[in-house]
Amino acid sequence: QVQLVESGGGSVQAGGSLRLSCAASGPTASSYYCMAWVRQAPGKGLEWVSTIGYGGASAAYSDSVKGRFTISRDNAKNTLYLQLNDLKTEDTAMYYCTREIYSRAPVEYRYRGQGTLVTVSS
Length: 122
Known about the structure:
This protein has no helices and eleven strands. It is mainly β.
């Protein structure tokens, strides 16, 4: 059973920073798979945020976060990260770690964690 556990969310003011983590466990936890972050703002659907290749060398970002967020991974620790800088109020959302995301829009994936909440105030 694959498990993804996110942490690091919190409440910050606009312009602030947070670092999210996602610990993967279970069969071939994360090392051989692309991993991604998605988010869901209050009252809205899931939005793809960023994807990183299994080697960590390739990454992609949505236009809304490009230049502000950085995705990374440590395969030795089976951990995925998302550095959030210059946060805006519109970044307020539940952030989810996913494994084997196969569609960005609509967001579709095989595994997802329980999420960590990021709240950005003005």
